[in-house]
Here is the input.
Amino acid sequence: MTPTAPRTGRTALLLLLGLGAWVAAYAAVKPLSAWLTFQVLGLAPGSHLGESIAFFLYDTPKVLLLLVLIVFGVGIIRSFFTAERTRAILAGKRESVGNVLAALLGVVTPFCSCSAVPLFIGFVEVGVPLGVTLSFLISAPMVNEIALVLLFGLFGWKVAALYLVTGLAIAIVAGFILGRMKLERFVESWVYESMKAEATFEKEHLGFTGRVEKGVEAVKEIVGKVWPWVIAGIAVGAGIHGYVPEGLLASFMGKSAWWSVPAAVAIGVPMYSNAAGIIPVVEALLGKGAALGTVLAFMMSVIGLSLPEIIILRKVLRPPLIAAFVGVVATGILLVGWMFNAVL
Here is the structure.
């Protein structure tokens, strides 16, 4: 028996106990929320306040529990993908293959809009083409793995698959188009001046226990930061669920209004939220009759084309390239919204 075997066994046992506690807690959420709302608080089923409180008390623990499990699993997956390893995989790839690979890596790597500048510089340093880099920078926030699994848990595999496929398609096609436009001259000159002769790559050797620890660290870091946004999003969703009339959202965000998709994108871009915070709002909008394509376009614009990300990218990109970036990605989001409203 190796010296690490007892530690690995303890980690496995604790992991199994933790998963068992998670399953028990998740199973108790629905009956406990109903009991608190209608028995303890004495609110009437079907009333505006009762439906809002029931939605909030049910969705808050449910989404937070899903978030903990998802972030833990993603933290383990991400332990295989350091920033240096991602750059090494993409370096030297021709654009067509590189765009696809970059978009796929964007789904599983631990980067968001706040990482845009250092990532962009790092990719340039190792010779990753501009279009491939942009495919990655579009995919990483837009095709968010937390949003993907939350959508699966709340709406089923079909909605989650639509989100994944369309988000990847936007990242791949937008990156390829921007790469064909030869916009390298609109990258700030200091980025190229900072290029190093050689890139150094970090090597990390983690065993089973080390990867589980990475998952726990991810839960502490990510859930610790996003839980206020989750609760705020659920509160907004609860208000929509309890007080907004069924037909009102259907008239503004339904299939019949062609302008609902661009309006949703225009509203979404200036907003600042993350995937975990926006999913409860999406749930409430769909429950009140909003069209799936319009809601998907709104969600993608919030998490994939947000104003904070554009401001951050301005540090490395000049206005013409930012305008092209926003225009191409926004066009892709609009097409996705209209397409799904037309066929579903």
User: Anything to note?
Assistant: Residues 15-194+206-343 form one domain. The chain has one domain: 15-194+206-343. The chain has a mean pLDDT of 77. The radius of gyration is 22 Å.
